[in-house]
Amino acid sequence: MAGKTRWAVAGTGGITARTLPDLALTExxxxxxxxxxxxxxxxxxxxxxxxxxxxxxxxxxxxxxxxDLVYICTPNGSHFxxxxxxxxxxxxxxxxxxxxxNAAQASRLADLAREHNVFSMEAMWMKFxxxxxxxxxxxxxxxxxxxxxxxxxxxxPAPATASRFWSxxxxxxxxLDLGVxxxxxxxxxxxxxxEVTVSSVLGHVREDGVDTRALVTLAAGEAAAQxxxxxxxxxxxxxxxAGTSGxxxxxxxxxxxxxFDVYSRGLGPGAPPxxxxxxxxxxxxxxxxxxAVSEAVQSGRTEHPAHPLSATIRTLxxxxxxxxxxxxxxYPARGALDPWDSIPExxxxxxx
Length: 352
Description:
By secondary structure, the protein is an alpha/beta fold. 33% of the residues lie in helices and 23% in strands. The chain has helices at residues 14-25, 39-49, 58-62, 79-88, 103-116, 130-139, 163-166, 174-190, 287-298, 309-330, and strands at residues 5-10, 29-35, 53-55, 69-72, 92-95, 120-122, 147-155, 197-205, 211-220, 223-230, 239-243, 247-250, 259-263, 275-278.
């Protein structure tokens, strides 16, 4: 497959509108189609963004032979069903985070993608950010010694009108929408110390199953991470990595930073001044991920080494455990919350 990969976008909400300008900047991507819940909405959106084809039904878009890859930008609760249908139609898939609402769904989807020999990835754009990639290059050789402590926070009071945050049926809550970022960041720098586990959790879950905030300690060998996420209050969007000899402060917001400051010997007497590392941002930050996905598809890969499906599954396993601890703490009688622990039977003819 030479030149550009041909993408179709599922969904016409805020995330689609935010990412389409970056898709237009990506030299090896061509957006050829969009689908929405209704044909008029799809037509309006396509006209606004210059997309040549519009579909009022998701299955109709999947039948388009000119579509190579489907970029899923719909509410969390629909991701598994829509990604599974795209894979079965022989389309490559890039799915907005969270990939699915639990690790079991993610494992099933990974197996399905391998069975159909198509590319599949969660759109964790943070991992493709040039500053984050440089950060990993600086940390790995021991510039700040052995990593012992990581922090990351992401949260804001989500408006009541933003239903995707507040609907259990849509996969809402702080953990799935925002927590995947802080957990993914922590895992990147804890994994070398050993298996990452959930050590402690403080937070709140509403009776309808929507988690509104969580303060989590992760452990791996002698290293630990403290992460926070919320949709009912502000969390400072910072991140830091501390080692046995120094530390690093990452620019805000940490998931799309322009750079970071390296204190290789901390702040003690005789410590050298911090080293500043900066990178350029393409568009709003999605371009490097879009380019990498297109390159992977063109080269015949079914996963991307920077963010393989195994990493997505590990993160969702931790999310599952955090949620389990929150539910057991606050709601011993699980009742209506049980669907979070199973794979919902979602029909695969879901429309966007």
